[in-house]
Amino acid sequence: MRVLPAFIGLGLGLSLASYSVFAEFNIHISENETKLNGERLSQPNTIFDDSPNVIEKSYIAKDGAASSQPNTQKLANTIEFELYQFGENYNSHSVYKSGGGICYGYRSDDGVDLTDSSTYYVDSNKQDYYVSIAGATLSSKDGIKNMQYAPVFNISDQSMDQVVRDEESKQGRKLVSKNMKEREELLSDVICK
């Protein structure tokens, strides 16, 4: 199977699989598996999975230069950079900002402001999705602080919408915390190490 760049798939809304909609169903989404009517699905839904399948990453520094590999020296000294991640059923956009430079801010009391938007697609045609929009301050001294997030749902099937909302109320904060920790580790383990 050839993987198209995510931005093309997003713009065109390609449907890669056909499916049937049942009037009544029972779905369970957990970190380990997804079950529909008690049967384990062969390809688990990645909404609350610990590891979405990221296929491509793109780093963009304040000057607009994009790269699939982080130029650590350049990103360490810039005042802002963006990280885009794309996967089959997932994409995210993270913006890191610090007026004194990313690593200077990360090592100081001021920290680095992070805004993150992560989209999890519920269906293969990418029409229905859940988004977590989050913000926090990242610092080597204090870790992740002042974290806030808001969930956004765009799911046309009311039953599925309620199921995803229920799962989000149980696991949403944990998912956002995990995302923020991964974004913080990019600074601590790669860019500012």
Word description of this protein:
The protein is an alpha+beta fold. It has helices spanning 6-12, 72-77, 102-107, 158-191, and strands spanning 27-29, 34-36, 39-40, 54-61, 66-67, 80-87, 90-97, 112-121, 129-139, 143-154. The protein has one domain. It is built from 4 helices and 10 strands. The strands form 2 sheets. The chain has a 7-stranded antiparallel beta sheet. A hairpin with a 4-residue loop joins strand 4 and strand 5 (66-67). The termini are far apart. The relative contact order is 0.14.
Can you give the mean pLDDT? Answer: 79
Strand order of the largest sheet: 5-4-6-7-8-9-10
Largest sheet: 7 strands, antiparallel
Helix content: 25-40%
Strand content: 25-35%
Poorly predicted regions = 1-37, 39-44
Number of domains: 1
The gross shape turns out to be globular
How many distinct helices?
4
Distance between the termini: 37 Å
Radius of gyration: 18 Å
Class by alpha and beta content? alpha+beta
Topology, number of strands: 10
Task: Give the SSE order as H and E letters.
Answer: HEEEEEHEEHEEEH
